[in-house]
Task: structure prediction
Amino acid sequence: MPTPSASTSHAISPTQTASPRPVIVLLTCCVAAIGGFLFGFDSGVINGTVDGLQQAFQSESVGTGFNVASMLLGCAVGAFFAGRLADKFGRRTLLLVAAVFFIISAWGSGVAGGSLEFVIYRILGGLAVGAASVMSPAYISEIAPSHLRGRLATIQQVAIISGLFFSFLNNYWLANIAGGSTAPLWFGFDAWRCMFWMELIPAGIFLVALMFIPESPRFLVSAGAYDKAERVLRLVYDEDASHKRLEEIRATLSERRQPRLSDLINPATNKLLKLVWVGIGLAVFQQLVGINVVFYYGAVLWQAVGFSESDALMINVISGAVSIAACLITIGLVDRLGRKPLLWAGSVGMAVTLATLVYAFSTAEIVDGRLALSSANGVLALLAANAYVFFFNVSWGPVMWVMLGEMFPNQVRGSGLAVAGLFQWGANFAITMTFPIMLATIGLTGAYGFYALCALASIFFVVKFVHETKGRELEEMVYE
Result:
C-alpha cells in the first residue's frame, strides 16, 4: 500500500555541485524509509491474524471489523498532527517517537487479552504509522540533493510495499510452522500473536538506526541551529554549495508564515477551493476501490471461497510480490506518461478485474457447509485478484500521493495534504470496518460489486476533474 509526503525543499541551481559522498545520503534515506517498511508491515500483519482475533476475543463481524480497523483511527490522527509536531520538535525526533510506538504496539498487540486492550495498542501503532507516512518522505525530501530527490523519494514507496510483502511472508511462514494461525507456536503462544511480535525486529532496528542519522537541515535552520544545519548540508554538497543552500533555506523560512486551514477557503465565495475537493476525491476513491480489503482481509477472503488457510496466506505473498513489481514499473513510467493517464488506465483495469471477481464469486457453491469455487473459476479469481492488485499499485497506489504532493500551491500545500490525508485514512477506516459486515450480509459478490462500481466512477472523476501536473514546477500551481 502507497504513502503521503509534503516536500519543503528547494532546488539547488545547476552551478551547485553535489558531494562526492552519495552513499551517506543513500544510507540516511534508507534509515528514514524503514518507517515506510513498518507502515507496510503493520498494515499487512493483521491479514493473517483475523481468525485468531475472532477466536481469542469471541468477536462477531462488527467487533472483528473494529479490531482490524482500529489502527486506522490512530493513522488519521498521526498523519494530521505529524507535520506541526515535526515543525516544533524536529523530523528525526518525531521518527524516534514513532519507532517507540511501533515497538509498544507490536508487543502489546501480541499480549492483549481482550478487544479493548488490543484496540489501544493498535491505535498506538496507528499513530506511529500515520506519523511515519508523513515524516519519512518529508525527511527524505529535505535531506536529499535535488538531482537525486525523485529517485530517493521512491525508496519510501518501495519500502511500504516491501513491508506489506514481508508481513504476508511472515504470516505464511509462522502459520505453516505452527499448523495454523490459531495453533500454539513459541512458548505456548498462538501463532497469530507471534506474527505481531515479529515486527519488533524491524522496529528495534529503526529505533537504533535513527540514533545515527542527522536532523533535517531545514528544521535546524528553523530552530536557529545554523552551524549544525551547514554541517548536515556538507554531507550532501560541497562547501560553497552548502553555504548557498543554507542561505536559501534561511531566506525561504524568513518569508514563510505558518499555514492555516482557513487558507483552503476561497475568500470570494467562502467555500472550499475546488482543488481541495479534487484532492479529497483522489484520497477517498483510492480507498473506495477496496484495495485494503485485500491487504487486511486477504486470508479471510480466500478462505471464504474454499481455499485452505495455508493457500490463502500464500496467495497474499504472491499479491505482495506483484505489488512490488507494479511499484517499480510506476517509478519508470510516472514522469514519462504522466499522472493522469496512469490514474485513468488504472481505474479501467481495476473496474474490469473487480467485475471479473464479482462474476467468479457469484458462481461459488455451498460444499460441506462452505463456499467453494470450481477449479476453473478459482484460477480465474486468483488471476483477476492479482491483476487488480497490479493495476492499483501501478496507478492509484503511488500516483495519488504524487498528485497530492504536486497539485496544491505552496501556500496551501501543508493544509491541503493534512485534509486529504485525514479523508484518506478516514475512508480506509470505513472500508475496513464495513467489509466483515458486508461479507456477512451481502456476501463477497455484493461487496466486490460495490468496489467495482467505485472503480468505474473513478474513471469519470479522473477524466473530468483531475488536471495533469507532470512537467510543471510547484510554483506554477494555482488556486481554483
Notes: Residues 17-213 form a domain with the Growth Hormone; Chain: A; fold (CATH 1.20.1250.20). Residues 1-20 have pLDDT under 50 and may be disordered. The chain has two domains: 17-213, 266-480. The longest helix spans residues 146-178.
